Amino acid sequence: MKFDDISLLLPELVQILIILGLFVQTLMKSETGATTDIGVRWVPWAAAVGIIVSAYSLKTSGSLFWDAYQMDGLSQFFKMAVALGFTIATLNAVNTPTVKNEQRTDYFLFFALSSLGLMLLASSVELITIYISLEIASYSLYAIIPLRGNDPRAAEAGIKYILFGAAATAIALFGLSYILASQNTTYLHILATKSWSWSAAPMAVVGLTLFMVGFFFKLALFPFHFWCPDVYDGTSNETAAFAATLPKLGAVVILIRLVALLKPEIEIVSIMAVLSAASMTFGNLAALAQKDVKRILGYSSVAHAGYVLVGLVAASAAGLSAAGFYSLIYLLMNLTCFWVICSLSRDGKNLLLDDLNGLYQRAPYLAFILAVGAFALVGLPPTAGFIGKLFLLTAAWNRGYNWLIIIAALNTAISIYYYLNIVRHAYTHEAEENIQFEEPRRYSSIWGGVLAASLLVLGVMPEPVFRWMEAAARQIIP
Question: Rounded to an integer, what distance in angstroms lies between the CA atom of residue 447 and that of residue 454?
Fold first, then answer.
């Protein structure tokens, strides 16, 4: 590989250096088994360098490894989003109370490995490469989801995630074999020239549908969502913040590349429209009955997977760019809410709605940050959630699925109840006098404020980010 080729991989190289640093640190054990007192506080700052490098590489283009690995506007946008999410997730997890000190470096190492897999996924344009990248991103999560002290719910969450994940990836691999058998290639740019209608290539349609299942699982799309609320509930708050956000970026970027092969009127897109409607409806209705804040966000994730598919169903540059833009917004919205959860739960326990009572009095800044995150998830102006949903719905209008837009609008109305219920507990309910609360750390309000500000800024000025995403989407549409 030439030096010029290596320069195409700058975001990945930064992530690999972080992984190597953490790996070396895991080897530096004392006789007692504890790691040396280097700590992991350097990781978020090193990850922030990855954001800068990814931003610098936004205009990078080229291909490597026999054209199986491609750098374009879409891949570089999502690599920057992964670097951003990795930075926030590690900053949030620096003081996680449910991971032992001797495990903390290994914990961050798995975070970094999973993020690297997602970066590889963003540039993969060949089905086998996509599959391998998906597994790299997944295996690390299998290891860290059960890490939550002695809480038995964590073991249950780990088992469910592994079993459902193994089943989903097996189905995806089975679908890949159908695609290869019918279309005789695994390269996306060649597959784009093939027919994907049921009448012309039924085996290819079945294969692509099955291959997408692996990514529907990551997206927590109904009916592949069964793991989602239980895993969020069972794993630690900091791990849930990572698992609830970053893997969805990898799923969306591959679904965008796959949907770019299709036309709006063909059968696979119709299947996706039905799944989108079912996911939105089921996720929102199930969230109405929840009292645990993480379970609310879990079922909310199922609903938001349906919203993302609205943009994909449009199968146009505007729709694909809206889906990519919304996935970035979803990353920030969810991480904002999880930031507040982790800041309040200093002992690592799950928060119930009643635990938010009186938050505006004991931590007014965190109450405001939580309100911004909840309003953004609803889709209220002037937050980025509003403009993200607006882009999705307008992109899909008059593309043959207007009924889906109506269902999405109705589901947004349903979601107002449980999101604003979170804010209601924080602002209108008084905390019980006999309950003692720990004072949140000062930096929690500062960094949480940055997250909340980003949602407001993107809500008011979304055009630069959206236009970049739209240009990236136009590059991949045949």
Answer: 11
Q: Which domain holds residue 93?
A: 3-476
Q: Are 76 and 58 in contact (CB under 8 A)?
A: yes
Say which amino acid occupies 65. Answer: F
Residue with tokens 């963003």: 122
Residue-wise pLDDT tens digits, 123-172 = 998 999 999 998 898 888 888 888 876 777 788 888 888 888 888 889 99
CB 404 within 8 A of CB 310: yes
Look over the chain and give the mean of its residue pLDDT values, rounded to a whole number: 85
Q: Compute, in degrees rounded to 10, the torsion defined by CA atoms 135, 137, 139, 142.
A: -130
Residues whose CB falls within 8 Å of the CB of residue 85, separated by 6 or more in sequence, listed in order: 115, 242, 245, 246, 249, 331, 335
What's the total number of domains in the chain? 1
**Cα distance between residue 460 and residue 155, in whole Å:** 43
Angle formed at CA 119 by CA 372 and CA 109, multiple of 5 degrees: 85
Distance CA 315, CA 442 (A): 45
The model's pTM is: 0.90
Task: Kindly report the three-state secondary structure assignment for every residue of 408-428.
Answer: HHHHHHHHHHHHHHHHHHHHH
- Give burial (CB, 10 Å; 0-12/13-18/19+) of 258: buried
Contact criterion met (CB below 8 Å) for 372 and 426: no
Here the tokens at position 75 are: 């891949």
Query: What is the tens place of the pLDDT at every residue in 228-287?
Result: 888 888 888 888 888 888 888 888 999 888 888 777 667 788 888 999 999 999 999 999
Q: Distance (Å, rounded) from C-alpha 86 to C-alpha 75?
A: 16
* pLDDT for the residue 37: 45
**Collapsed DSSP state (helix, strand, coil) of residue 187:** strand
Residue 289 confidence (pLDDT): 87
**For residues 103 and 147, is the Cβ–Cβ distance under 8 A?**
yes
Does residue 346 register a pLDDT over 80?
no
Residue count (the chain): 478
Question: To the nearest 5 percent, what fractions of the chain are helix, strand and coil?
Answer: 75, 5, 25
Tell me how far apart the alpha carbons of residues 312 and 276 are, in angstroms, rounded to a whole number: 10
Specify the DSSP class assigned to residue 478.
-
DSSP 150: B
Single out the residue of 9, 41, 12, 10 nearest to residue 25, CA to CA.
41
Distance (Å, whole) CA 330 – CA 146: 25
Q: Are 175 and 211 in contact (CB under 8 A)?
A: yes
